[in-house]
Amino acid sequence: MRSKFDQQLELLNVELIRMGALCEEAISAAAKALLDGDEALAEAAKAAEQEIDDKERAIESLCMKLLLQQQPVARDLRVISSALKMISDMERIGDQAEDIAELTRYVNMVSASSRLHIGDMARATISMVTDSVDSFVHKDLSLARAVCDEDDKVDALFLEVKRELIDLISADSSKGELGLDLLMVAKYLERIGDHATNIAEWVEYSLTGTHPKS
Q1: For the PhoU domain, which residue ranges apply (predicted)?
Q2: Residue 91 sits in which domain range?
Q3: pLDDT-derived band at 124, boundaries 50, 70, 90
Q4: How far apart (Å, rounded) are the C-alpha atoms in residues 86 and 200?
Q5: How many domains does the chain have?
Q6: What is the CATH number of the domain that holds 82?
Q7: CB of 76 closer than 8 Å to CB of 5
């Protein structure tokens, strides 16, 4: 019985890795679509978001089977409950990547991209998502805590983008609408960083039994 349970836990890890990879794909495609004005990449980000939704339902079903059929002990319960929380955050990450992709049709980055740190924000959040999922799979508490520290860098980049947008609009008031759209993009990326932090905090709970914010 335990052998079957361990196999299902391993499947849970595999499915979480796949969902995490889809999140990375969605963020990367959305950010590149925005920076390059590539509508095909915007559509790819939207397609990835649909796959993320499907993966969330599949993992949720697997977790329910583990809870109902295998009678997990306390440590296993923490792992499964943490996975359920994590996929909720990953689903939101997919939503926000899709929101960024949706803005692609309204934003022309040609005149602004060299002065903005949005690309840096996207790369930082992708790294946070990757590391948060890896910390769960590898039971790596130090990596989970490092993700939480990285969120401060994303927050600092968000403030930098805000300053850059203020300068952009001050120099040319006709770029006001562009500035507002890009501020929304930066806010979506900042929220993705928050969701990656949430994932890492649930990893800490699964390993220690204590949530950092409790």
Answers
A1: 16-103, 119-203
A2: 2-208
A3: very high
A4: 8
A5: 1
A6: 1.20.58.220
A7: yes
